[in-house]
Write a structure and sequence with these properties.
Strand order of the largest sheet: 1-3-2-4-5-6-13
Number of domains: 2
Radius of gyration: 20 Å
Strand content: 15-25%
Number of strands: 14
Helix content: 25-40%
Shape: elongated
Structural class: alpha/beta
CATH class of the largest domain: Alpha Beta
């Protein structure tokens, strides 16, 4: 049974998720994670109800995740409630959905946490005995939840940074950075942004968890750089367009644009095109069908592809396992989350940066 607290639209998910990664190793009983009290108390015949709480229900990435959750719930015979915030930044919408899951005495929550603003609500759920798994966005700190299934967002940023640096081929880098927020701490936001700068080869990025505090001029792996500025876009197309317009008004020589996701990249490209700027390296993260088509067309030079269906299927499996057996999954070696993989999809390959072509991206795209 599927319950929905917000409307969703159908989205085709390409390919089967990788089942080999579903062999999640046990790492002790529920007592060792501070608050997920389901442990081994569940039985094989116990009804399992969970919630998926995404940031919104309009971003194609989260729509794909919702569709994946419904498919996984149907396959596993569990009840799932689909909920979300109204938009990026709607902490209260997620808090309300968490409260609803607690009131309904559900077994677990899958959540793409909006920001640190939902941490207290997550802890309340864990104290009430719910097993809480983060998807896509590792919380800060990581142990706010029982485990996270996510892209290595630092690596995703690093890959597109390396690619952009190589594409410039020694030119001065005049950089625009289009982030999500300028008033919230979100790991996916700073990890992609800061990972991009690391990939570009900046010697000093400031605090690795703060966007915008790095030196505005200096050297990168290919020569000199100048950062025109960081703009909060809300991770949507309109924000990408207005953010790009704002930065172009400050410096019309921008030749590298980092974008938090592909809707933002689409908006940025529209602003660049309107300004008559076609020779700009635009890079992004997502790997949705529309984004990979943009890579194929050359409007996005490269994107780091992630896999939302895999995240949510692994999350559903993990909650079922903890309820039925008390066994918990382990983090990937050396990480504080379970890495669901990332692949650089590029319009043109560059020396020294491993990538796949657009056809590979389309074959593995969501959306």
């Amino acid at each position: 049974m599927i319950r929905r607290t917000k409307g969703t639209r159908s989205l085709r998910l390409v390919g089967a998720v990788v089942t080999a990664m579903l062999a999640l190793a046990a790492c002790g009983s529920s007592d060792d994670s501070g608050g997920s009290g389901n442990g081994g108390s569940g039985g094989s015949d116990e009804k399992i109800e969970v919630s998926l709480i995404t940031k919104d229900s309009t971003n194609p990435f989260f729509v794909a995740m919702q569709e994946g959750a419904k498919q996984a719930a149907d396959a596993e015979g569990i009840d799932i409630t689909i909920a979300s915030g109204k938009e990026e930044g709607d902490d209260q919408g997620q808090i309300d959905a968490i409260e609803n899951a607690i009131t309904a005495q559900q077994k677990g929550i899958l959540i793409t946490p909006m920001s640190t603003g939902v941490n207290d609500a997550i802890q309340k759920a864990r104290d009430a005995g719910l097993f809480v798994i983060a998807l896509d966005t590792p919380p800060d700190p990581p142990d706010t939840v029982d485990i996270t299934f996510a892209t290595d967002n630092r690596k995703a940023g690093n890959l597109i940074g390396q690619y952009a640096a190589a594409k410039l081929n020694g030119q001065k880098a005049v950089i625009a950075l289009l982030d999500i927020f300028d008033d919230k701490v979100v790991s996916v936001d700073y990890n992609r942004d800061q990972g991009f700068l690391e990939g570009m080869g900046l010697k000093d990025i400031g605090d690795p968890k703060i966007n915008g505090d790095e030196p505005k001029t200096g050297t990168y792996s290919g020569g000199d750089y100048e950062i025109v500025g960081n703009v909060a876009t809300g991770a949507n197309e309109e924000g990408g367009r207005t953010g790009m317009e704002q930065l172009l008004s400050k410096n019309g020589d921008i030749n590298v644009v980092y974008t938090i996701n592909e809707p933002t990249a689409a908006g940025a490209y529209a602003a660049l095109k309107a300004a008559g700027k076609t020779d700009v390296v635009v890079v992004s993260v997502d790997g949705g069908r529309a984004g990979v088509e943009a890579v194929k067309a050359g409007t996005i030079a490269a994107t780091s592809q992630q896999y939302p269906a895999k995240m949510v299927e692994l999350g559903v499996k993990a909650i079922i396992d903890i309820v039925k057996t008390g066994n918990k999954p382990e983090n990937s070696p050396g990480l504080d989350f379970f890495d669901t993989g990332v692949t650089l999809i590029a319009n043109e390959p560059v020396d020294g940066v491993e990538s796949k072509d657009a056809q590979y991206g389309l074959d593995n795209a969501w959306g």
